[in-house]
């Protein structure tokens, strides 16, 4: 990206660096522990999964208190807030919006009443039958829009739908209600929720998103990734299985299945989404990424002087590429580790100066060198174009771009906020056209077969929809899908108010933050 005077403008504030993440969930049952602080540190370890809002609910056995707001985990919570969230159970959530705008009312956990207690619920994933679920609520309400719960207060997420449906789901207790409701939900979901005395977790039958169970000395933890367990000192017990529902209380852990396991784990968790120290289905994410780099070098080696990564996500693959090709590994970019998500936009003057908040080139490393630069993916191409230009301005003789995933040609409906298909640079473009668009001397992607092999997972157990267009979970008609479906008046929702804010607008919290889709997607893609 360049400013009007031609100077480089590479600030990444448009979040084009990579596909946006989804959400991170964390739950803890631990009498005698400061559970809100455990949740805080667990969410801190999961911050890479969502940077728009964060929230924690805690129960002392009598009532549930929730605090949530727009911003990073470290921006939302302070010592006094966490101290006020007393109890022995907590549920935490960090969000990147995949259903509903980035507005305060959509922050999680959501809160709702049921005949068996209050529920606070956090969700990682994306339901594909939200329209049908909303219609079910309307039918139960005599044809009127829901007049209760967070849906009536402006929440437009599928998480609020689930919380509302639990309210009048038949069942003698909440476990029975959940076992009736969960089989009717379609799409990707990892739920962590609680009542005043019990912690619950559930994972969809395809296991699209990761969810793990851990043990504390005096309790239990569930979280999106092992990193959160390690951060709070919990040992890993196992992954929660696809189609499994668990409950944790004073009697221990109870498990039952609401659906037969039919794995379709997201391959992009291995490529980019999960932290490198995660294990998914027994396979190290870091080792998978290193092997992707090795395989990329086997498929397309290039005569060059050095290999450099786009930090941090491209680093393991660059290590693997260097090992396999024999080219020296170098740190051509330096990343500012203290730059998080920001709503402060640079002034026009700063833009014209080419402000570089996140990455700077080490000129002495790349000058007069033929450079192989490794990254995990290309979305719209803006970031790669800027990176190539930065390297050329720093004196690189040649720039060869290598990508450790195949071309992204299809949006995700299972919990990742990709660009629309029309915005994806690989849609309808040849390899040489993409190379020209990013101004590289050469461009290569890993093959889909090579990427899958690096994960050491059976191909039939992985979702590759964003690369192949083959969606393992059926999609609804185009008019019944999309991030803002529940804000569509035709469905029954409404657009977010100006006061509430929307994505990228610098949202303001509500008056009191504390409480007691895409074009050209086939309706049924080939399997």
TrEMBL record:
Domain of life from the UniProt record: Bacteria
SUPFAM superfamilies (alphabetical): N-terminal nucleophile aminohydrolases (Ntn hydrolases), PRTase-like
Amino acids binding [4Fe-4S] cluster: 266, 412, 463, 466
Location of the region described as Disordered in the Swiss-Prot/TrEMBL record: 483-527
Ranges of Low complexity composition bias in the record: 489-510
Cofactor: binding details: Binds 1 Mg(2+) ion per subunit.
UniProt keyword terms in alphabetical order: 4Fe-4S, Glutamine amidotransferase, Glycosyltransferase, Iron, Iron-sulfur, Magnesium, Metal-binding, Purine biosynthesis, Transferase
Pathway where this protein functions: Purine metabolism; IMP biosynthesis via de novo pathway; N(1)-(5-phospho-D-ribosyl)glycinamide from 5-phospho-alpha-D-ribose 1-diphosphate: step 1/2
Binding site for Mg(2+): 313, 375-376
Catalytic activities: 5-phospho-beta-D-ribosylamine + L-glutamate + diphosphate = 5-phospho-alpha-D-ribose 1-diphosphate + L-glutamine + H2O
HAMAP family, A to Z: PurF (MF_01931)
UniProt xrefs under NCBIfam families: purF
Function: Catalyzes the formation of phosphoribosylamine from phosphoribosylpyrophosphate (PRPP) and glutamine.
Protein name in UniProt: Amidophosphoribosyltransferase
Organism in which the protein naturally occurs: Nesterenkonia halobia
Lineage: Bacteria, Bacillati, Actinomycetota, Actinomycetes, Micrococcales
